[in-house]
Amino acid sequence: MDRPLTGPEKAAIIMGFLPLDTARQVFVHLRDVEKRDLVKSIGRLKVTDFEDVEASVLEYVNILKGSPSGLIEAGIERAMDIMEGILSEEEREHILQNLFNDDNNLFESLKTLKDVSPIVALLLNEEPQLIALMASYMRPNMAAELLSTLPKEKMRDVGEGIAMMGQTNPSVLQKWEEYLGKKIQSFHFSDASPETNGLKNIVAILNGVTRATERTFFEALEDKNPELAKTIKNNMFVFEDIGLLDSRSMQKVFSTITDNEMIAKAIKTASPELKEKIMSSLPKQRKDILEEELEGLGPIRRDDSEEAQQIIANQVKEMERNKEIVIDRGGGDVIF
What we know:
Belongs to the FliG family. This protein is mainly alpha-helical. It has 3 domains: 65 residues, no CATH class; 149 residues, Flagellar motor switch protein FliG, alpha-alpha superhelical domain (Annexin V, domain 1), CATH 1.10.220.30; 83 residues, Flagellar motor switch protein FliG, alpha-alpha superhelical domain (Annexin V, domain 1, Orthogonal Bundle). The protein has 21 helices and no strands.
């Protein structure tokens, strides 16, 4: 072609390489204007120069190289999806049993886990120490999902185990390897013992669970180990900690949250002191609107209130991470 290919023309060439079913799946995800341009380009496409094909494919490959993790589906879940409907359950189980027989150890595999369901059944009836060990090497959101599936007492014990975990002795890892070997062939642990920051891990995990799970966890842990519960709370941010914000930070936070109904649900179950502090930080007009929302709210489920509280707490944490606000947790680390 005498002129450079347009984007839709390059896309038309790539679509020509794909199997029909795959091309249809791609097409479904396009915007209407993209669909029109692509159909037009496919209909008019006349490739007379192989260099055009090569250039289009190489550009596509280079895009993949630029961000492989976001564009390539991989991991345990992808492998299971591919096997579904092709292999028998027995064949799939045999392959998964040997999943960790290569040089990658179990911990590295857990770091890329995107769905805990394949291992929930494996761990649900196991000792809290083992679950804590596995959870310590998962991404916090995956560990939070795993923690949420546990009964109250086991959730407490697993959380306690994560918080108190440091570097695990290789002989202990070997012990678990031998035990798991009875259920899954050759979970391979390396001789090196990965070091974990237990407190940091449990805080990151708890920041990802629901308010109901968080409440259940702390109620159980405070009965057994109140000092540890206090230490964990001091290192994480919960909705009640909004009371730690100074008036300027409080105003910044609620200026970014425009859903008055959500705020009303959140403060409906808050302490009178916290409710008053939030209300007093708002401009008079918005305070009046929020009071009307509260009056018209009526009875609500605790879960709905806690969900709203979690959204607001997450917003506060995000603003702190972005250095938009400062939270004074005591200890003299904040200068006014």
